[in-house]
Amino acid sequence: MTTGPAAMAVEGRLERALARFASDVSAPLGFELALPPVASPSYHAVESTTYTVSEGGGTPTLFLKLSGEETAELVDDDVAYEAQSRWFDLGFSPQPIARAPAERAVLSQYLGEGWKAARIDDLMHESTATRLVAMQKAIASGAPLGRPWSVFDGIDRLWMKLRGSSHLPADADWMANWMNTLRAALEAAGIDQRPAHGDPHSSNVMLGPDGAMQLVDFDMAGDMDPYYQLGVQMNELYQFETQMQPLLELHDGSVSRAKFARCRLYAAADDFYWALRSLLMEARSQAVGIEFLKYAGWRFLRCRMLLGHPGFEDYVRSV
Known about the structure:
By secondary structure, the chain is an alpha+beta fold. Helices cover about 50% and strands about 15% of the residues. It has a domain at about 5-110: Phosphorylase Kinase, domain 1 (2-Layer Sandwich). The protein is built from eleven helices and ten strands. Strands 1-2-3-5-4 form a five-stranded antiparallel β-sheet, with helices on both faces. β4 (about 95-100) and β5 form a beta hairpin. α7 (about 225-235) crosses α9 and α9 (about 255-285) crosses α11. The radius of gyration is 20 Å and the shape is globular.
């Protein structure tokens, strides 16, 4: 682990969390860093520090996540743990073992040999996409999590923190104004909030033996428009809209122009949100060598391209 004040603070939190968890396991705990942080090309393990944990020096069986302090005000730890607990009961997530709220630490079952983080190519296949959408619909049919969330509320919070940042692109105000238009259109059409994982990027889907699939990273879990999550998923997996539409058919049983338009509006908003969130991490993170600006630039670019697409205004009128 690298030295310095930030690393020492994480080490202190880790030691306190392991001491707290010692009463929940049967042997002394050993640990190793699990995932190196990477912001580009994928935004992976940059808002937390994760460890594989072994009992008594054996093969790792546990996974410990220390949530980062940089985005603490954007995450509801209680809801994230509740979501993981509920979805474990459904067979959709690793078992949560214990948590140390003061350290923002969660100890879970470790998905070890035979498991891997999904890649975009994995989730593009119809069979895999079908199973993932079925999991998301089962989650949406459950009781509310008690954390209403809108990507536009998220944008407002981040915009207030970052407005005036030297890293914002020259057309940031233009994109921000577009967000107000998208929000007004969607709210006028009506929004049904349902429980959702909220962050369906491929690295948050684990694939295991015999076709097993699990969801991980519950920081974005909350009650939200299901078409937000679906729109995000479409935007990550496919380049062309003709490829995206079958995902809506899997979700709804048919393709409605109004619902597809809703997904595309949310896709643009999600790109703007995560570009801003990456800039917040650039401003706050003390980690060295993580390309937050590169990732933010990519998300701004994709947002800009979608907002400027010749047919995008028609989608705004179609929701």
